[in-house]
Every structure is written in structure tokens, then in C-alpha cells.
Design goal:
mainly alpha, 79% helix
Length: 156
């Protein structure tokens, strides 16, 4: 954390990363056993989601100006949970697209039978890949943050 600055927020951020790294090291055998007991279709996405949630939590400290601000952000992020669920339902199709992308990535990574068959047909492989990347590009254009924002490491 000190690499990024001398503030307490960076120190807490670094400590959270140290905690996560220690957890990963200490629980390696246990998690390996669990990954064999729980089907990979459940275990792998759950692992990704939990890691992502932890990283989002840690990044609050990285971006906050003060520790008090970080705790205020965390407290306010769960304050109106009911209205947050309502807002999530309004964006259902966006989240459905994210799930579809995660499933496609999972299938490509595990080389399921479907992708093996698709990869044997060069024309089909190219069209699927072009479609996938076109949709990804479209999502970046729609959801992208464009405008005059300074690069996160500009001050370093």
C-alpha cells in the first residue's frame, strides 16, 4: 500500500491484499478438496464472484481520500438495499448479457464439446469469434466511460 501513497487508506488497502494472499496460501489444500466435491460449474463462478466482491471492497479504500470516507462509502452502499434491488431489476438485460459472456468464457476455457466442434469448422470459428468481439465492442461503447478523466496513476 505504501507504494501508492503514504495515507492510511493505502496502508489498509495493502493490508487487505496481504490478508487475501495469506488466505489463499493457508487455505490452498482445503480449497482444492472443496473444488473436487463441488461441481466446477458452481465452484468456479462462485470463486470468481467472491474474489471480485473482495476486490471491490478493497478498492473502496484505495480510492477514498480518508479512512472515514471509505467507511461512509461502505455504509452507504448498503443503506437503501431495497431500492438498489429495484434498480438492478431495471438493468436486468445488461446483467443477463454479463452472465452470457461469463458462460461463453467458461465454455471456451473448459473446451467443452461444443467449442471443440466449433473450432473444427474454420468458418464457424471465425464467425463466432467475430460476433463475440463485436458484441463486446458494442458493450464497451454503450457502457464505456468517456470524457475527460485523469489517468489513475497520473499523480504518481
Amino acid at each position: 500500500g505504501l507504494w501508492h501513497g503514504a495515507g492510511w487508506t493505502f496502508i489498509i488497502w495493502g493490508l487487505l491484499h496481504a490478508l487475501a494472499t495469506s488466505y489463499e496460501f493457508i487455505t490452498r489444500k482445503f480449497r482444492k478438496k472443496m473444488s473436487k466435491k463441488i461441481p466446477s460449474i458452481i465452484y468456479n463462478p462462485l470463486s470468481v464472484i467472491l474474489t471480485f466482491a473482495f476486490m471491490l471492497f478493497a478498492w473502496v479504500f484505495f480510492r477514498a481520500n480518508r479512512v472515514h470516507d471509505a467507511f461512509t462509502i461502505l455504509r452507504n452502499s448498503t443503506k437503501n438495499f431495497g431500492s438498489t434491488l429495484s434498480a438492478l431489476s431495471d438493468q436486468f438485460y445488461y446483467y443477463l448479457l454479463i452472465i452470457v459472456f461469463l458462460l461463453i468464457e467458461y465454455v471456451w476455457r473448459t473446451k467443452d464439446d461444443i467449442m471443440v466442434r466449433l473450432s473444427q469448422n474454420t468458418i464457424m470459428r471465425k464467425s463466432v469469434r467475430i460476433s463475440y468481439y463485436s458484441l463486446l465492442f458494442w458493450l464497451i461503447v454503450v457502457w464505456g466511460v468517456f470524457g475527460k478523466k485523469s489517468f489513475i496513476y497520473f499523480q504518481f
